[in-house]
Specification:
By secondary structure, the protein is mainly alpha-helical. Helices cover about 75% and strands about 5% of the residues. It is globular, with a radius of gyration of 22 Å. The two termini are about 45 Å apart.
Length: about 240
């Protein structure tokens, strides 16, 4: 089976497309927003890994149904799924912005021995040595990846069905595509984490600015997706 040149070509192309798929703007925005809250190389790799796993699981589930029953994914479902991803990006960016607002630096004025004193204060959470369980930290990127997989399932299924209608070959192609997206997203996550970690090591304000940019980018991409989908629906 694996000696079939056509199958090998399909697997190779699928892997490369998976790597390329990880570079989509909505994927980058979602992962960057999550990583802005977890600035470490280990967390970055884990976020990319679990995002990719969730993405692949959804594609395999949808692919099994499509290949087994020959069901065509309706355009309405695709539109709804992509709208859901857009809303998710806005929520992710908004949540990060709210977190930054709650931890903002501001001026406190008080008196000591009858003299007024002014100093800066932050409600930034204190770092401690307690680390949440890895499974809890993995749920969020896993769910985000599954949502993105659902939104992109129509395009992936179209690509797979144009080359084969066999269950085994189709699922293998989806799996290889998913592995490519996992590797791509892990590399992207590690790359994105570098400026975030570096900014944190310089000072808190620069770190906050980088987080703010991630928040704005996520909300902007989400709004842009909604506008694009609305214009596309109106033009039909």
């Amino acid at each position: 089976m694996l000696q079939d040149p056509q199958l090998l070509s399909l697997i190779g192309v699928g892997f490369l497309l998976g790597l390329r798929h990880a570079l989509d703007s909505d994927h980058l925005a979602a992962v960057a927003t999550v990583l802005a809250e977890r600035p470490s190389l280990l967390a970055s790799g884990a976020v990319g890994l679990w995002w990719g796993i969730g993405h692949t699981l959804t594609l395999l589930l949808v692919g099994s149904v499509v290949l087994a029953w020959g069901i065509r994914i309706p355009e309405e479902f695709e539109l709804l799924a992509e709208s859901g991803v857009a809303v998710l990006l806005i929520v992710l960016g908004g949540t990060l912005a709210l977190k930054l607002y709650r931890e903002r630096w501001h001026v406190h004025k008080h008196h000591h021995d009858g003299e007024p004193h002014i100093h800066f204060h932050s409600h930034h959470r204190q770092e401690d040595h307690r680390h949440p369980h890895w499974m809890i930290q993995s749920i969020r990127p896993l769910c985000i990846g599954m949502a993105h997989g659902l939104a992109g399932s129509a395009a992936v299924m179209l690509m797979i069905l144009s080359t084969t209608k066999e269950m085994g070959t189709g699922l293998l192609s989806i799996l290889v595509f998913g592995i490519g997206s996992i590797i791509g997203m892990m590399v992207i996550g590690l790359t994105i984490s570098v400026p975030v970690i570096y900014s944190r090591s310089i000072n808190h304000r620069l770190f906050g600015a980088v987080q703010g940019l991630a928040s704005i980018a996520s909300v902007s991409v989400g709004i842009w997706m909604l506008i694009k989908l609305a214009l596309s629906a109106a033009g039909e």
